[in-house]
Design goal:
There is one protein chain. The protein has 311 residues and is α/β, with parallel strands linked by helices. 31% of the residues lie in helices and 25% in strands. The chain contains nine helices and 13 strands. It has a nine-stranded mixed β-sheet, sandwiched between helices. Helix 5 packs across helix 6 and helix 7 runs antiparallel to helix 8. The protein is globular.
Length: 311
């Protein structure tokens, strides 16, 4: 398999505040242990982890011509992420998320819908992809409204025409979309990642098994339902399995855990590892990520992930 991986989606800035209690809006000033500024966004998180695992990912994204956009590009340069397909637009601000991390590691977000996070469109996607790319991963269905439905179909069809494996991750649907609304795009997906809440919202089903079956009915080849500390559930036409999580030593912040899971899976997939190994790599990356504040701060290098897999 060609081992280059193209990641499509958001590259933004995260402002992380941790820990935040429920009474945060009842006081004029609230002391917290940590306030930090990091890069974020589903695609950039995945690309960063892939780079640290020894890959040379290409990022397709959109940023503004502002300080935040420069931070994103500088980060990519430092990490070895190709920005050939990152568009800079001086008419919009780069997306910035304020992430309020609660004491149990769960999160709430402030987001800016008028920033770059929601503005990635088909116009920003290359009409053809480099010949040495073997995998395309669309980092989050429903983040970019212009790339739902027909837009996704176009992107995935381009990738399939070039013989690429198509992977896709998912966020919560924003406008009550269902699998029926995107079933033509889903029919071209080889590996779909979704957490239980995301899958429930878009399928209307109430168990991982029934959620996965509805995705398969749309033509998805392999479905992975992420279940947090419970691990994940896998289903294809050939079989199914419940795979336990790799325990984390502590859960500090779940920001980026799903992106890390996807990155670990993509890394192993690009190396022609079998499905069980791909999920093991995915679970290891997710486990490491929740142990620190920030989406990519927990994973430093490949050796660290390999050690976690062997624990």
């Amino acid at each position: 398999m060609k081992d280059k991986i193209l990641i499509v989606g958001a590259g933004i800035i995260d402002v992380l505040v941790q820990p935040v209690k429920a009474d945060v809006f009842e006081k004029g000033s609230v002391p917290v242990e940590n306030i930090s500024i990091t890069t974020g966004g589903d695609a950039l998180n995945e690309a960063t982890i892939l780079a640290r695992l020894g890959k040379k990912p290409l990022l397709v994204s959109l940023v503004g011509k502002d300080q935040a956009g420069t931070m994103v590009l500088d980060h990519c340069d430092k990490e070895g992420i190709s920005t050939k397909y990152v568009t800079r637009d001086d008419t919009i601000p780069t997306g910035v998320n304020v992430v309020m991390v609660q004491e149990d590691g769960s999160r709430n977000f402030f987001t800016n819908p008028s920033g770059s996070l929601r503005k990635l469109s088909l116009d920003h996607i290359p009409s053809s992809f480099p010949e040495d790319v073997g995998i395309l991963c669309f980092a989050s269905i429903f983040v970019s409204p212009m790339l739902d439905g027909k837009g996704l179909q176009v992107v995935f069809a381009r990738a399939k025409d070039q013989g690429m494996i198509v992977c896709a991750d998912m966020t919560k649907c924003k406008n009550q979309e269902t699998v029926r609304d995107i079933h033509k795009a889903l029919s071209m997906v080889d590996y779909l990642f979704a957490n239980e809440e995301e899958a429930q919202l878009v399928t209307g089903a109430d168990t991982p098994e029934s959620m996965a079956q509805l995705f398969l009915d749309c033509g998805v080849k392999n479905v992975i339902i992420k279940r947090g500390g419970k691990g994940c559930y896998f289903r294809s036409q050939e079989g199914e399995a419940h795979i336990p999580a790799i325990p984390a030593s502590v859960c500090v912040d779940t920001t980026g855990a799903g992106d890390a899971f996807a990155a670990g899976f993509l890394c192993a997939l690009s190396e022609n590892r079998d499905l069980s190994e791909c999920i093991r790599w995915a679970n290891a990356c997710g486990s490491l990520t929740v142990e620190t504040v920030g989406a990519v701060t927990g994973i430093k290098n490949r050796e660290q992930v390999e050690a976690r897999i062997c624990e």
